[in-house]
Structure prediction request, 340 residues.
Amino acid sequence: MGCVNRSKGSLLGLVTVLAVLSLMLVLPFVQYVLGAVLVAFVLYPLQRRLETVVSSMVAAAVLLVLAVVGFVAPFAAIFATIADEAWRIFGSFEANAVPVAELEARIADATGREVDLGGTIANSGQDIAQALFQRSPAALGTITHFVIGISLALFLVYYLLKDGGDFVAWLHRTVPLPQSIRNDLASELEGMIWAVLFGHVFVAVVQGLMAGLGLLAVGIPNTAFWTAVMIVLAMVPLIGAIPVWGGAVVYLLLVGRPAFALGLFVYSVVVVGLTDDYLRPLAVDRYARLNPAVILVGVLGGAYAFGIMGLFFGPVVLGGLKATLTVVSEHWEELETADG
Prediction:
């Protein structure tokens, strides 16, 4: 018996060491890995349907292309809008729009001291250029890490879609639990993930788009950019898109457009608010049954722990803990019988 225990202990020690080393390999790209898992999880039902028509390789490739287009196109449109607006503002300035000599004369008259604004501006430009040059290696490293991470995520999405069924079957065979408990646990976790995704991603997208239509209707500039910001903020409970559309209301009041400000306020409170009041509870309260405080902790804590992907995985982790505890409590006696 002692020999058997030593063998099990050695094997568990080896598994622990390899698991730690594997974690060290994943951590530098953890956000990209989590993103790939999330995308593959969402697309896997479509993968199974396409596999009835074409091969798993073709289905995975088609869905990967659709995922790239679906994620890259919106971001490209937002960045193009921002760049166009920045270029328009920059082009509106004339080459001699800043009267440096006149400003120097006025400062000298007011203070009795001569200043060299042109030289100061030139020196500042040199300092900025030097700082950018010094930081260029770090920036290059960041870009390289981003390119490698995106490439890794694309490969992971493809193979998770292509071989996802085999991977799930391997997990079922490997987890040392009775089959009934494995099935209940998988069902609870899958339902929790879908509820969190629907209640926070889908609802946030709908809420952000609805609020963006309001900004567009009243003529707020850079609507695409602010819509993207509202989609992200809408994932955070108790905050939502209020900071953006509320700021737009204040902006309209300051520029002398009170009727537009009132219209935007009413539209945002009624229409945008209804999307949050009805859609979010439908998913979170009915399916996930997570308290908003738990969601808030998951979103904020996940953002600190995992970066941007924590907005999605933070609530999923807490929801997964709840689902696991529920299954354990329901099957505790069965587990004791199995151990006996």
Q: What stands out?
A: The CA atoms of residues 105 and 111 lie 10 Å apart.
